[in-house]
Amino acid sequence: MLALNSWRISRSSRALLKLRTGRQAVSKAVTCSGHCMSTSFTMKDTWQGSMDFTTRGRDRLHSYNSLPVKSHRSYCIGQAKLSCWSCKQPLEETPAFFCLSCNMVQPPEAETSYFQIMDCDYTFTLDTHKLQRRYLQLQRSLHPDNFSQKSAKEQEYSESQSALVNKAYKTLLKPLSRGLYMLELQGMRIEEGTDSGADSEFLMELMEINEALDEAQSPEQAERIGRDMKEKLAELTEEIDAALLKGELQGAKALLAQMKYYANIEEKVKEKLSGFM
């Protein structure tokens, strides 16, 4: 009987030790997972900078951040940081345009989001004034003319960084290209010249608008169509923003497809008006 009790006590001790070890393993896994997530270049990374947001802004940002990103890179603290190509010191900023130690211009970082490059909130209704300020700031420091007397490598990096900033700025400036880029980050793409997803009634409406524009005999008639397009685009902007906030990517994709058509007509209105001059 004493031996049996000793065996039961020993067995209980081993089970308790195993349980504690399991809990510690789970705790470490959760800690590592949280650590990795906090340092991943996803939508919820440092793209928002150090701005303070209102409660509504934080809720909006949280909604966008909850969407999974198809194109991103993540790493744990144990993974090596990027280093300066010149002085070999670790680069403290992401993205790093210059080394803080030697002030050398750095090459573009792979898979860096345009939102991160332009230090903009990851939102469809981003602040375009802030975007423009950031663009001017970066181009003043990265423009190739500033490196004409520098080494060939610095000239090369300044040209590639400047070109990347230009592309990021142009992509994020307009709602249509911005929305398409946001879908691209989610692994979704709207193919050019495909009408398969368009409603027949919608296509008929577009045909009538185009015909009215072709038949416009005065700048006033063309401007009236242009105002209608601006109103439709404004409405679609709100609907796309709402769809993205809810994570309804297919709905946002369909709305962006409509936006492409209306944006094309808006460009035709500008061409028509230039013809009256």
UniProtKB/TrEMBL annotation:
Principal subcellular localization: cytoplasm
The protein's matches in Pfam families, at most eight in alphabetical order, are given as: HSCB_C (PF07743)
Q: Which GO terms describe its molecular function?
A: ATPase activator activity; metal ion binding; protein-folding chaperone binding
One GO cellular component from the entry?
Answer: mitochondrion
**Family membership noted in the UniProt record:** Belongs to the HscB family.
Name all J domain ranges: 113-185
The answer to keyword Cytoplasm applying to this record is yes
Q: In which pathway does it act?
A: Cofactor biosynthesis; iron-sulfur cluster biosynthesis
Keywords assigned: Chaperone, Cytoplasm, Metal-binding, Mitochondrion
Tell me the subunit arrangement. Homodimer. Interacts with ISCU (cytoplasmic form); this interaction stabilizes the (Fe-S) clusters on ISCU. Interacts with the CIA complex member CIAO1 (via LYR motif).
Alphabetical GO biological process terms: [2Fe-2S] cluster assembly; protein complex oligomerization
What organism is recorded for this protein? Xyrichtys novacula (Pearly razorfish)
Compartmental location = Cytoplasm; Mitochondrion
Keyword Cell cycle tagged: no
Q: What is this protein called?
A: Iron-sulfur cluster co-chaperone protein HscB
Which purpose does this protein serve, as stated in its record?
A: Acts as a co-chaperone in iron-sulfur cluster assembly in mitochondria. Required for incorporation of iron-sulfur clusters into SDHB, the iron-sulfur protein subunit of succinate dehydrogenase that is involved in complex II of the mitochondrial electron transport chain. Recruited to SDHB by interaction with SDHAF1 which first binds SDHB and then recruits the iron-sulfur transfer complex formed by HSC20, HSPA9 and ISCU through direct binding to HSC20. Plays an essential role in hematopoiesis. Acts as a co-chaperone in iron-sulfur cluster assembly in the cytoplasm. Also mediates complex formation between components of the cytosolic iron-sulfur biogenesis pathway and the CIA targeting complex composed of CIAO1, DIPK1B/FAM69B and MMS19 by binding directly to the scaffold protein ISCU and to CIAO1. This facilitates iron-sulfur cluster insertion into a number of cytoplasmic and nuclear proteins including POLD1, ELP3, DPYD and PPAT.
